[in-house]
What we know:
By secondary structure, this protein is mainly α.
Amino acid sequence: MKIFVSSTRTGKKDSTASTGREPARVHPDRLRTTPKVGKRKLLQLVLVLVAAAILLGNMAFQSRQDDTPAADPAAGGALDTLLELPVQEPAPEDGYDRERDFGSSWQDVDDNGCDTRNDILQRDLEDIAYSSGSSCEVASGRLDDPYTGTAIDFRRGKESGAVQIDHIVALKNAWTTGAQDWDRDKRVEFANDPLNLVASDGPANMGKGAKDASQWLPDNQAYQCPYVARQIAVKATYDLWVTPAERDAMEDVLLSCPAEPLPSRTSS
């Protein structure tokens, strides 16, 4: 009796034995290439998802910014007062004469024994020294100039023009925005009102001339809001109007500082 024994213990046929051929083999390069393709596609997918997340985040941030309400002007502040000023085109300059219409420079309108120029120098300068025998005439001092943000040494004499007294609202601007209708006494008062006066860098004052806020602002950006607020306070006090361009320029400045207070004579 013959007994046949299987070539395998599992019962599976030996393909090599039954066909006489070696099984097909996968080339090693194909084994190495396939995983790289999968990794590349995975990386591309990750990059697309990251870009989408960034885009959605930016859209959400922009939406929150758009939904943020604009700052309201402070009640009674500079911006609030600007919105109440009358707006119209300037009147003609015809007939304007500085000395005839607004009086000679620097009178003693408050009868304190000191002309307006020296009053403002005393108010705005530091480290003041007076001329010999005088308690009024300022001989020297130091100005922290609001227009340029620099410190200027003032000395009476040949170099006294380094510091000048500027009309915040220029006299010619006042003339073309309502002052033509005043009597001369009111115009002289206006020209010597401390609310409308500031000690400043001489060249900066000369560069400003009679320009309004749409044509000139201080180089010192930190003073632009207080400067425009002072102009508004002056115009409101004297019932002067603003031109459309002037109003727009003032509003543009004050939108960056909507809580800017309105100066008064006691705070100037």
